[in-house]
Design brief:
Blueprint (H helix, E strand, L loop, with lengths): L5 H13 L6 H10 L4 H13 L7 H10 L5 H9 L5 H12 L4 H12 L6 H11 L9 H7 L26 H5 L5 H7 L8 E2 L2 E2 L9 H4 L2 H9 L12 E5 L4 E8 L4 E4 L5 E4 L4 E6 L15 H11 L6
Antiparallel strand pairs: 1-2, 3-4, 3-7, 4-5, 5-6
Helix pairs in contact: 1-3, 3-4, 4-6, 5-6, 5-7, 7-8, 11-14, 13-14
Length: 317
């Protein structure tokens, strides 16, 4: 029946539907397969003979409505889902049925269900909304609608700005000269704490910049020194910084992970924030690294040499 035109298969499919006992899932699946591409028309015909008031549907017709997923069933599916007269399994079945209807009215009905404080499966309804808004229901702009209805609660935003290098910046020795200094790995283990703000090192630190546990052992001392002393000289791919400015004066520097709505940006200490598009004034690429200038971190050439020695030592695992 799946490949047979509606005109030739309609009566046969209606007869098959009437033979469903409301329990045989294999029977139901075979029927649904035969209705592929014809669900709307078959549902409309069955609603006249097997349907009736939503709360009085038979178990067989409820399962048929679940399987066909017709937009015409949305209003009744919602009524049944919200009806305290029905059992919780029956109400859940109707909510699940809505989740598979590819129509904007189904997404609105799911929001109505999620907004009902007495609905016993509120968390599951929210799960369906959050799942479907990025795939089957993506064209329906659920983000904006869910926000408007209070189904998405925005967390307060916090300004996080990477400090500019000091005006009176220290004139540092060449990287090769610092690399030639004798480093103390034990002193470096203490000094490296300045890096935990943005880097994962061993079991400590935040995941913003590159992970450094094995990085030090694969690079020369001079490369490591230069990365610390001149952080903007060479920025690793994928770690380019951006600045998000909001209409209400909040500025967030970080790495943008998702550019949709909301924009997701991760900043120092690994703090992640969601910024909705209608709050954003501008997004600009930073022309410098998110990593702090060594003067800002309170480093000296000797401390840099110590950090490099620690990163290359066997003490770091």
């Amino acid at each position: 029946m799946r490949d047979v035109p509606l005109e030739q298969s309609r009566d046969i499919l209606l007869t098959v539907a009437k033979g469903f006992d409301g329990k045989d899932r294999s029977y139901l699946e075979a029927f649904g397969t035969g209705c592929d591409g014809k669900e709307k028309e078959i549902y409309a015909a069955l609603a006249k003979t097997m349907g009736g008031p939503a709360e009085q549907w038979s178990e067989a017709f409820a399962w048929i409505a679940w399987r066909l997923g017709s937009p015409d069933a949305v209003a009744d599916l919602k009524t049944r889902a919200l009806s305290p007269k029905l059992s919780q399994p029956d109400r859940k079945l109707m909510m699940d049925a809505l989740a598979f209807v590819k129509a904007p009215e189904a997404s609105v009905a799911m929001m109505d269900i999620a907004a009902d404080k007495d609905f016993p499966f509120h968390d599951l309804a929210m799960w369906w909304l959050n799942s479907r808004k990025d795939n089957e229901w993506k064209p329906y702009d659920l983000f904006a609608q869910m926000r408007q209805r209070g189904l998405i609660v925005e967390k307060p935003l916090v300004s996080i700005v990477t400090p500019e290098p000091p005006a009176n910046k220290t004139t540092w020795p060449a990287a090769a000269e610092i690399a030639a200094l004798k480093g103390d790995s034990q002193a470096g283990e203490a000094a490296v704490a300045a890096c935990y703000l943005c880097h994962k090192i061993g079991k400590q630190g935040a995941e913003l910049g590159p992970e450094l546990t094995s990085f030090g052992k694969t690079q020369t001392r001079e490369v490591l020194v230069n990365a610390i002393v001149n952080p903007s000289a060479e920025i690793s791919h994928g770690y380019e910084g951006s600045r998000v400015e909001t209409n209400d004066g909040i500025t967030i520097d970080g790495i943008i992970g998702t550019t949709g709505d909301p924009v997701i940006i991760k900043s120092m200490n690994g703090q992640t924030q969601e910024v909705y598009r209608d709050r954003i004034k501008s997004i600009t690429k930073l022309e410098r690294s998110l990593m702090f200038d060594p003067d800002t971190l309170g480093l000296t050439p000797q401390k840099v040499a110590d950090i490099v020695s620690y990163l290359q030592s066997d003490a770091l695992k």
